[in-house]
Every structure is written in C-alpha cells, then in structure tokens.
Design brief:
There is one protein chain. This protein has a single domain, classed as 3-Layer(aba) Sandwich (Rossmann fold). The protein has a nine-stranded mixed β-sheet with strand order 1-2-4-3-7-8-9-10-11, sandwiched between helices. It is built from eight helices and eleven strands. The longest helix has 19 residues. Strand 5 and strand 6 form a beta hairpin. It has 337 residues and is of the alpha/beta class.
Length: 337
Amino acid sequence: MSQPVLVRALRTAVRVPGAAAPYDTAHVTVRYPARAASTTAERMSGRLPAAPERAPYPLAVVLPGVNVSSDAYAWLAVHLVEAGFVAVTYDWVAELFPPSEHGPGDYGLSPGVDLAVVGPETYGTGPTTQALRPVLDAVTALGEDGPLAGLLDTGSVGLFGHSAGGTVALQSASPQWFPEVRAVATYAAHTMASQMLGHPPSTLLPSPAQAPVMLLAGTADGVVAASAVRYGEDPGAPEHDPVTATWERALPATTEAWLVVIEAATHMLAVHPDDPTTARGFLEDPPTGDVAALREALAAAVTSFFRATVRGDVEAKNDLELLAEQPRPEIADIRRR
C-alpha cells in the first residue's frame, strides 16, 4: 500500500497589470507534495521541502467561479497534487460588471474577466482573463527559490475552470497566448455570450483551444438553467444546453474533446464546502444522492484527463479509455471526438 501524499501550501501575491488599485492584486496559493519535517526549523515554520520523486511537476491551475473563494477548491487541489501536479488556486477581488445606466459597477471574487475583450468587436483579440499570465509568472518565480526550486515544469500546464472560470479558460487557451497549456478541463462552463456584453441572442463564441478539452456538466445544474435569460433563451427550457453546444460547435474540429455528464450533479458540485452566503447556488435545488461520490467522480475524470494529456501517463490514458467504454455509475453520459 502506497504512502499518502503529504500536501503543503505556499502563498504569494501578484499585481495584475492594467487593474486599478486597490483591485490590482491576486493572492495565489500553491499546493505541492512535500517531505515530512526533519528539522526543528521545518517543524516550527511548517515550511517543508518538496518531495522530488515525481518531479518535474507540471502545473494544474484552478480558475474559480464568480464569488467563489479558492478555499472551496482546496479538495480538488489536493487530488491534483496526489495525481502528480503542483496545484495553483487564486483569489482576486476585481470588477465583475462595469457601471451602466442601471447602476454602479460591481466588484467581487473573479477568475479575471477582461471586459474590454469580451464584446462583439473585441473577442478573439486576446485572452479574456487578465489574471492567468501574472498567476503563472508568480508560480514560475516560486520555482526559482525555496521549497519548489528546480522542481517545476512550468512549460506544461493544465487549466481547470469552474463556471465563469471555465468560460475564460476555454476562451483564453490559445497557443498564441498560452503556449504552455497542454489541456483544459471545465465544470459547468460554456462559451455562450451574454447579451449584456452586446452579443446577439444565442451567440456561441468559438474557443481557440487546440490542446485537448474535457467539458464536465451536471444533470441538475440549476444555475446554468436559470441563466438562460442572459443569452436570450428561455430559463429551464430543455433545449437550453450550452455545455453540449460548446462541445459540439465551439471547439476547433481538430481539438480532442470530451463531454462528461454527471448524474444529479448541481452547478456547485465543484465547490466544497459550499458557502451559501455567496455565489449563485441559491438558484438551484439542494443536491440529492451521494454528493461525495459525485465529487469523487468529477475529481477522477479531471485527474485522469490531466495525467494523460499533461503528464503523458500511459496508465491514465488507459483509464480514460476504460471510462469511455465502461462509465462509472455516476456518469450519465460520456462522449468524445
């Protein structure tokens, strides 16, 4: 029986270029596999050296949903570290909506949405998140000194995005802007464009992702259903399925693409523990069934996908083949092209 992985965290902060103070700083948490404390200094500080056995470690960056704290993705970050990655999460309080005739602008926890690049005239001219490049640069700097020195493969990155974080990951994962991205996985995310940004109803924006993509969704996603009005569609209408539409039509034809639908999973499945005072989980019914098993199915699919595509792990590629041929009971549908 293998020994459990000891997961430790480092924290840093980074300025986001172009953002106005005081909303110009992202706080970054980097989780890594560590060796047990062996000195008094390590035991007193809690700062432990990284375990070098599976180095160099590629990065798995988690892009959060709107108003979801990075702590809510710590459970997934631990799974990613156990799978052989250094996991990166971040918190950035930034502008969510600009001032308009309807009222003042709104600020909150954001994956970073560049409002200047998401309109009909500007989409495709650059990444739709300002946060990802400075976050990656901050992690690269951590790899030059301290516990992670010389142990990171910053040229191999997997992006996991939840909700709006998944949207900006899909919109930004161009090799032109982020050549280090080797795979993109999202949960409860799509590229349908809001009419508030000036797009016509039912506009599906093309993703520039050329690396393999896995779109995950839940059959009980009440937030996506209720958000249909943003896109000029009917809330709750059976035909409103922007995640499947993204898989079918928004990704390049040459991109390896997976669609994994988890039975009875809600929009907030990726969040644990859920903070009911923030985000929009109130739009959906309480989850039913074995939520822990559903969350485990999500983590297993994402980690296998990243191990196969980012680390090039043959065993993980076999796991993906098996998942497609013999889906676990929590999987309602799985497709690939």
